[in-house]
Write a structure and sequence with these properties.
23 strands, single chain, 32% strand, 7 helices, Alpha-Beta Plaits, alpha+beta
């Protein structure tokens, strides 16, 4: 990902004082409406930005009192060019925060990112029907400048170094009432990062991920730590400790990479033990089975050909539990087909083999792709029927 900066031009609005707001460095605030100012953004960025580049510059935030659609709007400009606005709710709290700090109506500058990285890429269709990549803008503003934090329940940290591990509590920001009504204390919750909103971490009920069904966001002071933790693939434990009328309190424990590795190794050991016990159980056939198989692109098999199961031993399958796959040979002993799904059928064939249950595997269907596509295929799909005698 490329990074380069440019000194901003003088802003178009010269009225009033101007202050600089320093953000957390995670650019958590997404500018809205930038799809209407793509020409301005392309002029700002120029031709040097490739798809993987992000253009780092300064933006200016202006109280747009004369906006015909919203007299509480906050306009965002870069190099004196209009590039979008703060969201409606964010603009109102921003005004309140600026006024509370004695800067009512003042212009402010902050760092901004303009670019087309994968996590902020927006694809649109232009007037000619061609797909166009749209530039997006994110601002490095502290979250408490655009969103009110809870003033009723203070955020507490139970360890001195939550960046590494430990337990801390927070009140989820802006939880939807309809989702909150489905929750109760001690419910486990999921944490996830929204790729379209830089630096934002959401809380969701188990099995539910998505903005519409989220329980709200993690406060900004924890978002970066949690986002990096999730990106590292490390484990965590999170649960609701209290549910109120318009909010919920969540307790979160970040688990170290060492403990994560140990837990995953233990889980893998249990999975292997369970598979070993399952495959050693005697198999009692309840009828024929249908199995999806993958054939070599150069195969010369036809429907009705018999496949011979290649048993590689119990320990082989137990060690490869994460990618359970079985192989079939022809009568000459050459491997001609593999199968990995559905896993229930694969396990049934393995159990039958270890139980020394006679079985016959025959091809009943073979895909015949167009010759022009063969150079691009890794395998050809087929279907086999397994009969037990």
């Amino acid at each position: 990902m490329g990074f380069f900066s440019r000194k901003p031009k003088k802003p178009s609005d010269d009225a009033g004082s101007c202050i600089h707001i320093e953000g957390p460095g995670s650019f958590p605030v997404r500018v809205v409406g930038e799809q209407h100012y793509q020409d301005n953004l392309r002029k700002i960025v120029g031709s040097s930005t490739r798809d993987e580049d992000e253009f780092i510059t300064s933006a200016i935030l202006i109280h747009d009192d004369k906006n015909p659609y919203d007299d509480k709007a906050i306009r965002v400009e870069i190099d004196g060019k209009h590039v979008g606005h703060l969201g409606k709710a964010e603009a109102r709290h921003y005004r309140e925060r600026m006024a509370a700090d004695g800067n009512a109506g003042a212009r402010a500058t902050c760092k901004a990112i303009v670019g087309m990285p994968s996590h902020r890429l927006v694809v649109g269709v232009d007037a000619k029907g061609s797909v166009a990549r749209q530039l997006s803008v994110a601002l490095d503003l502290p979250r408490d400048f655009v969103e009110p934090l809870s003033r009723d329940t203070p955020v507490t940290i139970e360890t001195e170094e939550p960046e590494e591990t430990g337990t801390f509590s927070f009140r989820a920001e802006t939880p939807p009432a309809e989702e909150l009504a489905k929750c109760q204390a001690e419910d486990k919750v999921n944490l996830w990062v929204d790729r379209d909103s830089v630096g934002v971490v959401y809380v969701s009920r188990p099995g539910v991920i998505g903005k519409r069904s989220s329980l709200g966001r993690i406060p900004s002071q924890f978002a970066k730590v949690v986002s990096e933790h999730l990106s590292g693939g490390w484990l965590y434990e999170a649960k609701i400790t209290a549910v109120e009328t318009s909010s919920c309190t969540v307790e979160c424990k970040l688990i170290t990479r060492e403990e994560t590795a140990a837990k995953r190794e233990e889980a893998l050991r249990k999975t292997r033990d369970n598979l070993k016990k399952e495959l050693q159980r005697k198999y009692v056939p309840k009828g024929s089975l249908t199995l999806n198989v993958e054939l070599s692109v150069e195969h010369d098999l036809v429907e009705g050909d018999e496949l011979l199961f290649r048993n590689q031993g119990l320990d082989h399958y137990v060690e490869n539990v994460s990618s359970l796959e079985i192989e079939f040979t022809d009568k000459q002993g050459e491997i001609v087909a593999t199968a990995s799904s559905p896993s229930g059928t694969v396990k049934a064939i393995l159990r039958a083999s270890f139980s020394e249950t006679p079985m016959t595997v025959k091809l009943v269907e073979v895909e015949t792709p167009d010759k022009s596509t063969l150079p691009y295929l890794k395998s050809i799909r087929g279907q086999a029927e397994v009969d037990f005698r």
